[in-house]
Automatic annotation (TrEMBL):
GO molecular function: DNA binding; DNA-binding transcription factor activity
Occurrences of domain HTH gntR-type (ranges): 5-73
One GO term of the biological process aspect: negative regulation of DNA-templated transcription
Provenance organism: Micromonospora viridifaciens
Signal peptide range in chain numbering: none
Alphabetical UniProt keywords: DNA-binding, Transcription, Transcription regulation
Name of this chain's protein: Regulatory protein, gntR family
InterPro entries: Bact_HTH_transcr_reg, Tscrpt_reg_HTH_GntR, WH-like_DNA-bd_sf, WH_DNA-bd_sf
Length: 78
């Protein structure tokens, strides 16, 4: 049986995986919170939680009034 995973954690994991795989490239803009909420069939609050955690981790960067972008490669490489 697969353990329960909160949706915000799944969204965070999937975005992180896309960045790690190079599907989302540094400087690339993510879809809006509304678009991601529709894609995952959830609320904007749930999407925002995942995005905010990725911003805190330095994977993404938010630009007020512009959008959320993949951070530069040097910011999240180990």
């Amino acid at each position: 049986m697969v353990p329960y995973e909160p949706l915000w954690r799944r969204i965070r994991r999937e975005i992180q995986a896309k960045v790690d795989a190079g599907i989302l490239k540094p400087g690339e803009k993510l879809p809006t919170t509304k678009e991601l909420a529709e894609q995952y069939e959830t609320s904007g609050v749930t999407v925002r939680k995942a995005i905010d955690l990725l911003i805190e981790a330095g994977v993404l960067e938010g630009r007020q009034g512009v959008g959320v972008f993949v951070a530069g490669a040097s910011k999240h490489e180990a």
